[in-house]
Amino acid sequence: MGIKGDRPEGAADGQFCIRRKCRRLRCGVLAAVLAAGLCLSGCQGKNVETMAAFAEKEGTEDGTGAADSVDGEFGMSNESGAETTVDGDTAANPGASTGSVEDAATVKELNRVKVKGIYVSGPMAGTAGMDNLIALVDRTELNALVIDVKNDDGYLTCELDVPLAEQIGSEKHYIKDLPALVQTCKEKNIYLIARVVAFKDPILAEKMPEWSLHNSDGSIFRDKSGLAWVNPYRKEVWEYLASVGEAAIKAGFDEVQYDYVRFSTDSRMKQVDFGDSTKGRTKTEAISGFTLYASERIHAAGGRISADVYGVVIDSEEDQQIVGQNYVEMSRSLDAISPMIYPSHYGPYNYQIPVPDAQPYDTVLAAMQASKMVLAGLDPKTGKKPASADVSGNDAVDAAIVGGEAVSGNNAADAAADSQSTSGTTAVSGNDAAQDAKDAQAADGAQAAKDAAAKTPALNKEEIAQLDPTTGVQATVRPWLQDFTATWVKGHISYGPEEIRAQIQAVYDAGYEEWILWNAANRYTEGGLLTQEEEEQ
C-alpha cells in the first residue's frame, strides 16, 4: 500500500497535494509531479518531497520509515482513552478463537472472503513477535494477514521456488520456517495474503539492466533515493512477478497482493526513454495488461489476486495516466483492489475537508463514495451519469462529496457543452451547412442532457452505498486504513481507538465490507477493533 512507493505498503495511498504556490487547487493531482515535487500538504518540519520519495514504500506511508522494524510495545498509550497496541516483540495475552474466515479447506472455493486484515513486515513475520499478532487476530474481528513476501528492496523474505530470484541473489529469508507459519495460520483459519512489490525492484533492475528503466543517454534510471526501477512494459518483468506470486500460492498463501503496480512518480522520470518497449501502449494499458496477465497466472495456480493503488486515481484520470493505474480497468481483472486512502495523505481541502487527517470518518467516507460512483459509471462529483460521453467529473477541481452527500455542479460538463455550441450562420457549401446543422443538433443534445441531469436529485448517502459496479467490474474494494499518528501533518490528530473505528465505520457506511490496517512497525490499536464476541453479536 503507498506514497512511499505505491501504497504505503502499508502506508498510504491516498491523495497527495501538489503545492501550487500554496493555492487550493485539487489536492492529489499528480500531473505536476514530473515537473515539480509532490508533497504531503502541510508537512511539518519536512522538506518538500516528490511523490516517489514519500511514497516509494507502498507499505510505509505512515512516514515512520519503519517497514522492517520489529520494534514496539504492548501497553497503554498516553492518549486519552485506552489504546492497547500489539506488536511482535512483547507478550500478549493469548486468546482462543474459532476464526472469522470459513474453514481453511474451503477458502479458495469461496467467491469472496470478507477480509479484515493487518500488514506484517518480513522481519516481524520471522520473529517470535508474530505469535502476538496471530493472538491479536484470535481475540478480535481480524481474519487476515498481509505478509511481505517480496519487499520494497526486491528481496524475497522467505524460501520460495523462484529460480531467477536465486540466480540474481534476491533472497533474504527473514521467515525461516514458512511451512510452519502457514500451518499455524491455517489451523486458526487466518486468510493469508502475500504482498509482492512489483515494479520498484532495485535488485532485478541492477542484475538484469536490460529490464530496467533507462535515461535518454542509456544510463539506468534511478529515483531520488538512488533506487533503480524495472520497466513495466517488459514482459520478462511480468513473468518474474507472476512466478513469485505463483510460488507464494503454492507455498500456502490464499492471495497475492501486488504493490507498486505503477510507474515511478519521481521528477526524474521525464528523462526516461522507453524506446520501442511500449509497442504503442500507454502507461495505463501497460499496468492493466500486467494485472490481467498476472490474474490469469495466479488464478491458474489456485489463488486470488489483488493490487494496491493510489487513492487519488479513484477519481482523477490525469493522475491515472501519470502512474498508469486505471481504477476501473484494473478492477476488471482483479479479485480485489486496495486504494490507499489514509486521511493523513490527503492535502488540505481534498473533498472540501480543511484537514483530512483530523476528520478520518469524513475523509474515508468521501473516498469510498467516490469509488462507489466511479465503478458504477457515475460522475463522482455529481453522482450522476456524465452529461456526454466526452465529459467526466473525474478531473473536477474538488471531488465534492461532503458528509455523505454528493454536491451537484459539473463545470466540466458546462465547458464541454459550451465548446460544442455553433452558430451555423455562414454556410459556404451544402456539406458545411449540413455539418453546421449536425453540430447544432449535437450541441442541443448535450445541453438537453445537461439540463436533465441538473434536474435529477443528487444521490444521498444510502443510495450511494447501494450502487452496484458497472458490467465487467469484478474486484472487491478493500481499502488500506491508517493506524498511526501522522505527526508531520499540520493540524494532525492522534490516532487511537476512536479514529481507527471511525475509518472502519466509514467503509461500511459507504457500502463496502473489507479493509486492511497499516502500521509500518506492525503496532496495531486493539481498542479500535471488535472482539470476537462483539463481532458475533
From TrEMBL:
It holds the Pfam family DUF4015. Signal peptide: none annotated. Residues 412-427, 442-455 have a biased composition (Low complexity). GO terms for molecular function: hydrolase activity. Coiled coil: none annotated. The keyword DNA-binding does not apply. Residues 117-378, 470-524 form the DUF4015 domain. The keyword tRNA processing does not apply. Residues 57-100, 412-467 are annotated as: Disordered. Keywords: Hydrolase. InterPro entries: DUF4015, GH. This is Glycoside hydrolase. It comes from Gallintestinimicrobium propionicum.
